[in-house]
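Standup notes
- DV: blocked on the single-chain target, sequence here:
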Amino acid sequence: MVLVAATTDLVTADLEGRAAFAEAINAEVPENWPPELYESTAMRWSLRQLEDSAEHGWSFWYLLSKKSDPPRVIGICGFKGKPDGDGSVEIGYSILEQFRVQGYATEAVARLVVWAFSHQNVTEVSAETLPHLKQSIRVMEKNGLVFSGKGSEYGVVRYAVKKGSF
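- DV (later): unblocked, structure below
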C-alpha cells in the first residue's frame, strides 16, 4: 500500500469527479469513490486546511493498493490538523467497502501513528468512533490505542496511545 499526501491539486481534482481525480493521482478510482465520511464537505474542509503550509502532512492521505496495475485508490486516512498545545493529534480513516477486512486500515493507522510520533512535539495520537463499529475499534486496538473515554460528540468513544506506548 502507498500513502499519498493530499495536495490542493489532488483534492481539487477529487472534487471535479472520478476521471479528473484518476488522472491527477495516476491510479484507478473505483465507481463507489469516495468512501464513507469523505464527501464533498470534507474535501472542501481539507482544501482550506491545505492552504496553510504548516499543515503539510497533517491533513488527508490517499491510500493506494499496489496489487493492481495501475494502482487503485482504496480509501483515505489522515489527521484532523496539527498537534494541539498538549501534543495530541486525532486521526481518521475510511476504506471503500470492497477493500475492508484486508488489513488496509490497520496498516494505514500504523503508518500515521509512526509518522506522528516521529515529530518531537507529538505526545499522543487519538481516534474517535461509534461504539458499535467493532471493526474500527479493532483497528485502533491493533495499533495500541486504548479506550480513553467519551469522544467529542454525543455517542462517540475515544481511543488514544501515548508516545512510548506504541
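- Follow-up: The radius of gyration is 15 Å.
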